[in-house]
Specification:
One of its GO terms (cellular component) is cytoplasm. It contains nine helices and 14 strands. The chain is an alpha/beta fold. The protein folds into two domains: 240 residues, 3-Layer(aba) Sandwich (Aspartate Aminotransferase, domain 2), CATH 3.40.640; 101 residues, Alpha-Beta Complex (Aspartate Aminotransferase, domain 1), CATH 3.90.1150. Helix 1 packs across helix 6 and helix 3 packs across helix 4. Bound molecules: pyridoxal-5'-phosphate.
């Protein structure tokens, strides 16, 4: 079967096989990977290797800390303003979809939020033109969502601003090389391109640490997490370990340049098939079409249930669009092989022939 779930998403087959063996008995130590102390030498080695592999993959500069935290990307919606306002009153946000909206709603509890640009009136089908952005000169940071998982809208550029740039990379991290030095902070929930649910990776420039907001719980303080190697309390050891296996797998695939070329090919094929048909459609501006999440509609919405049933019978799983927007969505993250995209395209053409 091929799994097109938006998250928790498909993991590489080789990673799952390795995890299966380690779950029972890790390196003949007589205990499961899940049963080891996070402070023991074995787990510390696993954790350090995972961090180093991630640093290698993204070429993370030395003046950035890598944190492995809990609470998902949703917790970061609060943790970012709590940590980065640093005495300032306001922060800039760019709104390109549902996840931006959620980040904005949470930040409003801590800051005066200036929505510098939004595509809401256009039903989130494009990244607003930079010339229309109304940035606030006094903002503590600018937050944006490089890839909107639900609407399938992806930035085709990294914003250039004078304040620290903060990005929710949950659904596109590790899909291509990234110049981390352009960011103040990057966060990404794991359950798409990193590993299983239960962990969120934060990459933060060191000079942004320690801007303590009064009353902030200790567990929310990035500086405390950094000082304790993300082990201020018990970390999600299994998710961390499995993320490490994904990083090793990515390196074995040839790193981010190789995976980016594959991702570009997969996306081009699928959008090409959609555009070539009069039956399927994708509404997103071409320059902003996501390489990871491809939403599409059928010419007759009454056929959606049949489409999903037939797809599942062909072992093409989880193609329903997000419940808030409907339609279809194929998430084609790193671990979804090109053969999955080919099988989906064949199925779509066949479905169109029979029902179109
Ligand atoms: N941000 C983006 C872009 C997402 O796609 C998601 C989840 O799908 C989230 C945030 C929320 O992540 P979590 O469920 O880990 O809190």
């Amino acid at each position: 079967a091929f799994n097109f779930c938006a998250g928790p998403a498909a993991l590489p087959e080789a990673v799952l096989q390795q995890a299966q063996a380690d779950l029972v008995d890790w390196q003949r130590r007589g205990c499961s990977i899940m049963e080891m102390s996070h402070r023991g030498a074995d787990f510390v080695a696993i954790a350090e290797r995972a961090e180093q592999d991630l640093r290698d993959l993204l070429a993370i500069p030395d003046n950035y800390k890598v944190l492995f935290l809990q609470g998902g990307a949703t917790q970061q919606f609060a943790q970012v303003p709590m940590n980065l306002l640093g005495g300032k009153a306001s922060a800039d946000y760019i709104c390109t979809g549902v996840w931006s909206e959620k980040a904005i709603a949470e930040a409003k509890k801590f800051a005066q939020v200036n929505v510098a640009a939004t595509d809401v009136a256009n039903h989130f089908r494009a990244v607003p033109d930079v010339s229309t952005w109304q940035l606030d000169n006094h903002a503590a940071y600018l937050h944006y969502t490089p890839n909107e998982t639900i609407h399938g809208v992806e930035f085709d550029f990294i914003p250039s601003v004078d304040v620290p740039l903060v990005a929710d990379y949950s659904s596109s991290i590790l899909s291509e090389p990234l110049d981390v030095s352009k960011f103040g902070l990057i966060y990404a929930g794991a359950q798409k391109n990193i590993g299983p649910a239960g962990i969120v990776v934060v990459i933060v420039r060191e000079d942004l640490l320690g801007r303590y907001a009064a009353g902030m719980p200790t567990i929310m303080d990035y500086a405390v997490a950094a000082k304790n190697g993300s082990m201020y309390n018990t970390p999600p050891t299994y998710s961390w370990y499995l993320s490490g296996l994904v990083f090793q797998w990515l390196k074995a695939q040839g790193g981010l340049e190789a995976i980016a070329a594959l991702n570009a090919r997969k996306a081009a094929k699928l959008y090409g098939a959609i555009d070539a048909s009069g039956f399927y459609a994708n509404p997103v501006a071409i320059a902003n079409r996501s390489r990871m999440n491809v939403p599409f509609t059928l010419a007759d919405a009454r056929l959606e249930a049949t489409f999903l049933q037939e797809a599942e019978a062909q072992h093409l799983l989880n193609l329903a669009g997000h419940r808030s927007v409907g339609g279809m969505r194929a998430s084609i993250y790193n671990a979804v092989p090109e053969a999955a995209v080919d099988a989906l395209i064949d199925f779509m053409a066949d479905f169109e022939r029979r029902h179109g």
